[in-house]
Amino acid sequence: MRLLVVEDERDLAENLKKGLTEQGYAVDIALDGEEGCFMAETEPYDLIILDLMLPKMDGIAICNSLRKKGLNIPVLMLTAKSRIEDKVEGFNTGADDYLTKPFSMTELYVRVKALLKRRDKIELPVLEVGNLKIDLFKHKVYRANEAIELTPKEFSILELLAKNKNGVVTRTMILDHVWDTSYTGDSNIVDVLVGTLRKKIDLPGKGKLIQTVYGVGFKLAAKE
Ligand code: CA
């Protein structure tokens, strides 16, 4: 487990590192907000202990930045303030828990453990159609337990088809889902990508899952 401590009080930061290392975690320290934000966004941490008041960039701004980038790393916010409004503000910006300074190390360990445990329990769905499995969390696709490599766009189309299992997905739906609104290219691109997707998914002898609904779109369904 890799933890990041973003805390500008050097003594506290060092104490946290020492204590958490003794608990078996690998711990990095950032002493200001900018450095902390950069490290949090570039290194694969399991949890961030984030001070609220920091030079250069405060804890709330860091949290906002992480969440905006889609990073759902658990954040334990440290705050010297104990007013309820501050707690609420912390939660609204995506912190998962908070601790008011001063706190005991034992209390900190308990919170850290709880957050890591909670994170492990969050299972993103694995979509299944026949013997096709789409792991949305790991971005992996398996047909009859064999891994299939897809491009991001192919994956995105397959995800949409699987979420609408047994229903028709139109070319427009696919265009809207896979490309941003500025895309003005040829809608044939959908047919091209569904074609390459089909070659990878519907391997010979495995049965056809991607069906063309003529004049409308496509459907992902397992034949009974
Ligand atoms: Ca501080």
UniProtKB/TrEMBL annotation:
The keyword Transcription regulation is assigned to this record: yes
Coiled-coil segments: none
Pfam families reported for this sequence: Response_reg, Trans_reg_C
Domain (OmpR/PhoB-type): residue spans on this chain: 124-222
Keywords assigned: DNA-binding, Phosphoprotein, Transcription, Transcription regulation, Two-component regulatory system
Biological processes, Gene Ontology terms: regulation of DNA-templated transcription
Protein name as it appears in the record: DNA-binding response regulator
Residues found modified as 4-aspartylphosphate: 51
DNA bind region: 124-222
